[in-house]
Design a protein that fits this description.
Blueprint lengths: L4 H30 L2 H8 L13 H11 L4 H8 L14 E7 L7 E8 L13 E9 L4 E3 L6 H12 L7 H23 L3 H4 L9 H15 L1 H20 L8 H15 L15 H14 L6 E7 L7 E6 L12 E4 L5 E4 L5 H14 L5 H36 L3 H29 L7 H22 L12 H24 L3 H7 L3 H26 L16
Antiparallel strand pairs: 1-2, 1-5, 2-3, 3-4, 5-6, 6-7, 7-8
Helix pairs in contact: 1-5, 1-6, 1-13, 2-5, 2-18, 6-9, 8-13, 13-14, 14-15, 14-16, 16-18
């Protein structure tokens, strides 16, 4: 089929990258935004613009909050479909377990609980006989914050990078997983294709024709960020492997998995099931103090990042306190478990094994919960380099083939170019358009988050239609004017996002940088302004370019 192995790898690199590159583009871009997801949340929800807080007192602040917490209506509806008979009224359900979670970047506190239900499950294999409740609170006062407002950073952009916000039948997870695997293939085949890879590390000729410049930039960004791209594609697959791609613990090995839980409970002293004997809850604050003392004695002082209570109100209940390990790259918990009714220490997690340490390090490096702002910005840079690498791959594909397609009457280059415009500038328009809508819509609008999601998809759809409509010149071997036009729209939206944030909240850059310094908001505003300037410059440059390219190299003239 192919004259040699290198040509086979070229075909694999080209077509696999083209087909799934659109998904990879979203994964890289929204992965880059996810590095600062909490900061984007602060911009999108002005009432949460205060300093990050430590885990508050459980006895004084959180305990009264959990007494008010109720099952979430959405989960009541979902659980009703899985059980026999009607669920009891939510006010009558009692909490069987609870959690509270925060990070060094969170001013707000995320809490949740499981409520026991008496109903039998329709599916015997379904082991989850609970209804969930969750909320966001102000840890300074314990007041509930409206959960009707979408956390655009952590609940939209962040899941977009690993499941495309497409939860039906877990299709989004599988598509991103497949794209991640193809990314590994593309990286390996790219190394095989480019025999002069060291030279390409230092080669970029922007004054050359588009095809040559695009290939230079594609090679340059691919080589420079190769370790970053390979690591994140690989660890992303590893993180989801046992849960989704190869869930043998929940399928083939389910009986063994259940037995393992029982054995683990006996080994660790952490009861797997409640005893059915009521027992009060001792002072959790005292347990927190003891946990901090023990962490300090192990030369790793820190705060509680995750608080978890299992079998609440039962003699077998226990409290698990996990250290907020923001001072380490590895995603570690260093948990200490207490008997809920007495406060005695049941178990202090030992240091992990070598394999466990490697897993914690790789997972922590991917999820970046650490407190290192320079490294976070390097993550953003790596993600954006991945976007540039993919985008220039699209451009090179079109530029190399569009003259031949024009001569044969093929619409292939036109379609790919329109999809490339939609994936590159269209995705940015959808993202920043969503931020503009967030600031324009009234803060107390019912279902505001749903409108923001609708605006996101609406902007993206309009970008697709515009790119298709304006792509006719590509079929004649010319440039699609949609590139320049969408860059200008993007610049206008970015300026508008900054302006509407100022007008609706009063938090202009002079205030957030110099007067009442608040970097989460200032950082996003500055990023938007820089993006607007780049988009305006790019739009102007593209508009000035000629729409046709006489003398373009033909399909058969390969670039090495």
């Amino acid at each position: 089929m192919f004259a040699n192995f290198r040509l086979a790898m070229t075909w694999l690199h080209t077509w696999f990258g083209l087909v799934l590159g659109f998904i990879l583009m979203a994964a890289f871009f929204f992965g880059a935004l996810s590095v600062f997801d909490r900061e984007i949340d602060r911009w999108a929800i002005p009432e949460t613009r205060f300093a990050p807080q430590h885990m508050p007192s459980f006895d004084a602040v959180l305990k009264p909050v959990y007494e008010k917490l109720k099952p979430h209506p959405d989960d009541m509806v979902a659980t009703q479909k899985r059980v026999i008979g009607d669920l009891p009224h939510p006010d009558t359900l009692t909490i069987s377990s609870l959690y509270a979670y925060t990070t060094h970047r969170d001013p707000v506190l995320t809490i949740g609980a499981e409520f026991d239900i008496p109903n039998e499950l329709k599916d015997a294999a379904d082991e989850h006989a609970h209804v969930h409740g969750w909320a966001t609170i102000d840890p300074r006062s314990g007041e509930f914050l409206s959960d009707d407002k979408l956390k655009i950073g952590s609940n939209w952009f962040y899941p977009m990078h690993y499941r495309l916000n497409w939860s039906w039948m877990l299709v989004g997870y599988w598509l991103v997983g497949l794209a991640g695997f193809i990314m590994l293939v593309a990286l390996v085949t790219g190394v095989i294709i480019h025999r002069k890879i060291f030279r390409e590390f230092f080669t970029f000729r922007p004054w050359k024709r588009t095809q040559r410049s695009a290939l230079d930039l594609h090679n340059l960004t691919g080589v420079v960020a190769f370790p970053f791209h390979f690591f994140f594609a690989f660890t992303g697959l590893v993180i989801f492997a046992s849960w989704l791609y190869f869930p043998v613990g929940d399928t083939l090995l389910r009986p063994l998995h259940k037995q393992h839980e029982v054995v683990e409970a006996q080994r660790t002293g952490l009861p797997n099931e409640p005893a059915g004997v009521p027992a009060p809850l001792a002072s959790v604050d005292a347990m927190i103090l003891e946990a901090k003392r023990r962490w300090a004695a192990r030369d790793m002082p820190g705060e509680v990042g995750l608080l978890f209570i299992n079998h609440l109100g039962d003699i077998n209940g226990y409290v698990s306190l996990y250290r907020a390990g923001s001072d380490q790259v590895a995603l570690v918990g260093q948990a200490i478990h207490f008997k809920a009714s007495t406060g005695e220490v049941l178990r202090e997690e030992p240091p992990p094994s070598v394999v466990g340490s490697i897993n914690e390090f790789l997972t922590g490096l991917h999820l970046q919960h650490f407190e290192h702002w320079l490294l976070r910005w390097l993550y953003v840079l790596g993600g954006l380099l991945g976007c540039v690498c993919i985008a220039t791959g699209f451009i090179f594909f079109v530029e190399k083939r569009k003259r031949k397609h024009a001569e044969s009457g093929s619409q292939g280059s036109r379609i790919v170019d329109a999809l490339a415009v939609t994936t590159v500038t269209g995705m940015l328009i959808a993202t920043i358009g969503m931020l503009v809508v967030n600031r324009v819509l009234p803060a107390d609008l019912v279902g505001k988050g749903d409108w923001e999601k609708l605006a996101f998809w609406g902007f993206w759809l309009l970008a697709l239609l515009h790119a298709l409509w304006r792509s006719a010149p590509v079929a004649m071997a010319a440039r699609n004017p949609a590139w320049a036009e969408q860059c200008r729209v993007l610049a206008a939206l970015a300026f508008l996002a900054v302006a509407t944030n100022w007008l609706t909240t009063g938090d202009h850059l002079l205030k957030t940088v110099f007067i009442d310094t608040y970097w989460p908001v200032a950082g996003l505003d500055l990023s938007l302004l820089v993006g607007a300037l780049i988009a305006a410059w790019a739009g102007g440059r593209l508009a000035c370019k000629s729409t046709s390219f006489p003398g373009m190299k033909q399909e058969g003239e390969a670039y090495e």
